[in-house]
Write a structure and sequence with these properties.
The complex is a heterodimer of chains A (about 400) and B (about 400). By secondary structure, chain A is α/β, with parallel strands linked by helices. Chain A contains 17 helices and twelve strands. Chain B is about 40% helix and about 15% strand. Chain B starts with 9 loop residues before the first strand and ends in a 5-residue tail after the last helix. Classes of the chains: A alpha/beta (about 400), B alpha/beta (about 400). The interface between A and B is large, with 152 and 141 residues.
């Protein structure tokens, strides 16, 4: 965990890949106890996703799995067996919160949908995450990061510097699955607050598609209020752009006049900058194609770090286009101790992104590595549910765990 | 009052533009009473739109259920009134510049003296500590510094900026997360909290593939467009009509066979270049062209329905217009259209979860709409006192 604020909350996770596992991880980061249930033998799908330590695939070697599942306990269980279902029910009875991201039909067949879960434990908070939600015509449609982004309308107009002859592209990695997991965690903790006050359970139906809609900001309103709906027609292509410099790229976002003036000063007040063409924000946007090479002509002799620091120190809105390498040496992230070292029994010590929040009045705890497949079987099955080690061996032979 | 998640929680919101407002909006959907402090002396960006003070569609989309009162914090009397409000509140959220609150004489240490168990959450671009805490931080700036731009773009292309802004809703949601976490802790321990969320770090927490590639293997992850690590086909393909696309993602041999069947098992699909996942991935550029030659004769909706019925993941690359009008989206009701007091019909969002306990809130407030509620009902001012403060431009 990172901060001890949800102490005593017991969470059961039956999820795979990113959204539900990240939702559960957020609760674990805040001090809840999370037990993650995985398929025997195969485990979470993210265990088979890049990047792998040393490019050697292995169930315990995926950077994605390790990141999404830190601070949890892990057990294996097959709820399709009668005994497995019984054990699952026992775990549900002991849990305050149940988080999952299985297809709607699968949970119904397994008798693990809310209808059944609330009979097992009426005070449970259950959060289901699916691409399109539990209801509606597409509830059984398959999703995935690319599909969800497309159906959430962020894919269509993804790149600002868009060439409409090219296909829309997705954002890197699983960004919106992470964001969906975050939103789900907010609602889940809200429901847990109500649970502690009233003893009532509740159900949260989270759809990736709807979570993605939150980002649409201007886009959806352009359509709604102004009927703009083609990629070529979006109005607000302000002069906020990425530009090449000596050793990388910078992000230029001087929207206010004073910020632009500071930037001109930094460039040594070149003559072209006083011209009519670039006198206002609107004209700079209009004549961006003429402005861009002039800016890049100066930028090419200066490094990203130099431009970023010198601009910001003067009040000009420049961002560095950081790669992972740059982030690891950035002075701000270093000062805030953003990256954390986590020791893993097989992978050794590695640096991970930490959490973006600081609870200033609480000590920051040391996060724990993600569980190995079935690592906590003995602790949970023997320690909590009263099975003997012999039972455990039989359960394994019978394919239950 | 019907059952809601955050019954009886009062939040003061010194929020502006999007991130902080979105935190207030989410807390309000959970049933908290959120009181936004505004002032004519420093109208926030979203009150300054061309449409007018109460008609700005950004503002009216991101402040559902929030109450608005006006206080000119440059006046010492306003600061005193604010302190009285703090005494009867549980949470303060703010996304002003990191200098603003201490500037009003309202740093956390002061607020804590007024109410020892107050929860305060700030959402600065780069954090409220560290050497760069005062750097200018627009959404796209913090996204660049957070690592998004460098890893986003077409295969082999330049880094790109997304048209949407993730930093604001993400920072806003992390802010709401900290609030509910702190409230849970407060209910158990009676303790307050001082918390900040750095929006640039928030973006980085969504990019572990990028960070871990470097941390584990010392490599900078290239920009990959629609390329997946192993799936192919995995891209957007052209369809009938102007700028129409469908996304298709094939993850298994079974799905590939199902897709071939839908396509009528064309001769090219039997080529050994596409025989298994590995070869499809290796030959994906050629594969993508061939898939596109099939999709182009259908509408994007047709391709989605045909493939999904066969068990293959496919989705329309919706324009906002198409998404807004889609029957599934309508059926789910995540987009809300409501009549605003002055803004006409407004389009807004519900929190990203569907729950029976989500509060049924009115639309965004008019500027200062709840002055008499806050100053008279909550703080007990008389009509005369309030009129005087209005005249003195304290309530302003």
């Amino acid at each position: 965990m990172f901060y001890k604020v949800l102490e005593g909350v017991k969470v059961l996770e039956y999820g795979t890949l990113v959204d539900a596992p990240f939702c559960a991880r957020i609760l674990a980061d805040l001090g809840a106890e999370v037990i993650k249930i995985e398929e025997p033998e195969t485990g979470d799908e993210s265990r088979r996703q890049e990047p792998f330590l040393g490019d050697i695939p292995g169930l315990e070697r995926s950077g994605l799995y390790q990141y999404v599942n830190m601070n949890k306990k892990g057990i294996t269980l097959n709820p399709r067996t009668a005994t497995g279902y019984k054990i699952f029910s026992e775990l549900l009875k002991q849990a305050d919160v149940f988080i999952e991201n299985n297809p709607v039909k699968r949970m119904k067949v397994l008798e693990l949908n809310y209808k059944h879960v609330k009979e097992i434990n009426p005070r449970i908070v259950m959060t289901s995450i699916t691409p399109f939600g539990q209801t509606g015509p597409y509830k059984d449609y398959k999703g995935g990061e690319l599909i969800n982004e497309s159906m959430g309308a962020v894919g269509f107009d993804s790149a600002r510097e868009v060439d409409v002859s090219l296909e829309p592209i997705k954002l890197p990695g699983h960004i919106f699955s992470f964001q969906t997991g975050l939103g789900a965690a907010v609602g889940t903790i809200g429901a847990a607050i109500n649970q502690t006050m009233t003893g009532h359970g509740t159900y949260l139906d989270v759809a990736e598609q709807e979570s993605i809609m939150q980002n649409l900001h201007a886009m959806l309103r352009y359509y709604y209020y102004k009927q703009v709906c083609y990629r070529t027609d979006v109005l607000d292509r302000a002069p906020a752009h990425i530009l090449k410099c000596k050793d990388g790229y910078i992000h230029h976002a001087n929207m206010e006049e004073v910020q632009w003036q500071r930037f001109i000063e930094l460039m040594g007040s070149p003559e072209w900058a006083s011209g009519e063409l670039f006198a206002t924000y609107t004209s700079r946007a209009k004549f961006w194609d003429a402005l861009k090479p002039l800016l890049e002509d100066w930028l090419k002799d200066h490094t990203m770090d130099e431009i970023y620091r010198a601009s910001q120190d003067r009040g000009s809105a420049i961002g560095a286009v950081y790669t992972a390498k740059d982030m690891f040496t950035d002075r701000q992230l270093t000062a805030r101790e953003f990256f954390v070292d986590i020791e893993h029994s097989e992978n050794g010590k590695l640096k991970y992104p930490g959490v973006p929040y600081r609870f200033f009045d609480l000590p920051r705890e040391t996060p724990a590595a993600a569980p190995q497949l079935g690592q906590h079987n003995e602790e949970i099955y023997c320690g909590r549910l009263g099975y003997t080690r012999e039972n455990l061996a039989k359960l394994k032979e019978a394919g239950v765990i | 009052m019907s059952e809601v998640f955050l019954k009886g929680v009062r939040v003061i919101a010194l929020t502006q533009v999007w991130a902080g407002a979105w935190t207030g909006h989410l807390l309000s959907d959970m049933g908290a009473e959120v009181i936004k402090i505004e002032s004519s002396t420093k109208l926030e960006l979203y009150r300054r739109g061309k449409e007018g003070l109460n008609k700005e569609s950004h503002f009216n989309a991101y402040n559902n259920g929030v109450k608005s009162c006006t206080l000119n914090m440059k006046q010492p009397e306003a600061v005193e009134i604010f302190k009285k409000l703090v005494k009867i509140s549980d949470v303060i959220i703010e996304n002003l510049s990191p200098r603003a609150m201490p500037g009003f004489g309202l740093g956390y240490d002061t607020l804590k003296q007024i109410k020892p168990d107050i929860i305060m959450v700030s959402e600065p671009g780069f954090g409220s500590t560290g050497p760069d805490k005062n750097y200018i931080s627009y959404a796209s700036t913090v996204e660049a510094v957070g690592g998004l731009a460098a890893s986003f773009g077409y295969l082999g292309g330049e880094p790109a900026t997304p048209s949407i802004f993730l930093a604001d809703p993400t920072g806003g949601m992390y802010g709401a997360l900290c609030v509910v976490g702190a409230i849970f802790h407060h209910r158990k321990t009676g303790k307050g909290q001082h918390i900040d969320v750095a929006q640039s770090e928030a973006i980085t927490t969504f990019l572990p593939e990028v960070i871990m590639e470097y941390s584990m293997n010392g490599r900078i992850r290239p920009r990959m467009g629609n390329r997946d690590a192993i799936m192919a086909p995995h891209s957007c393909y052209p369809c009938k009509g102007r700028d129409k696309w469908v996304a298709i993602a094939v993850g298994t041999n079974e799905e590939w066979k199902a897709m071939c069947k839908v396509m009528g098992n064309p001769e090219w699909s039997k080529d050994e270049k596409f025989a298994d996942q590995y070869s499809r991935w290796q030959n994906q550029d050629e594969l993508n062209k061939l898939v596109g030659s099939w999709t182009k004769d259908f509408t994007h909706y047709d391709v989605m329905h045909l493939l999904q019925k066969a068990g293959v993941a496919a989705g329309v690359s919706f324009s906002t217009k198409e998404m807004y009008n889609d029957p599934h989206v309508k059926d789910r009701g995540a987009l809300i259209e409501k009549d605003h007091l002055e803004g006409g019909k407004v389009l807004t969002w519900r929190a990203p979860w569907k729950s029976a306990l989500t509060a049924q809130n009115p639309t965004a407030p008019l500027f200062g709409q709840h002055n008499s509620y806050v100053f008279q009902e909550l703080l007990g001012m008389s009509d005369a006192e309030m009129a005087k403060l209005v005249e003195q431009k304290v309530i302003y």
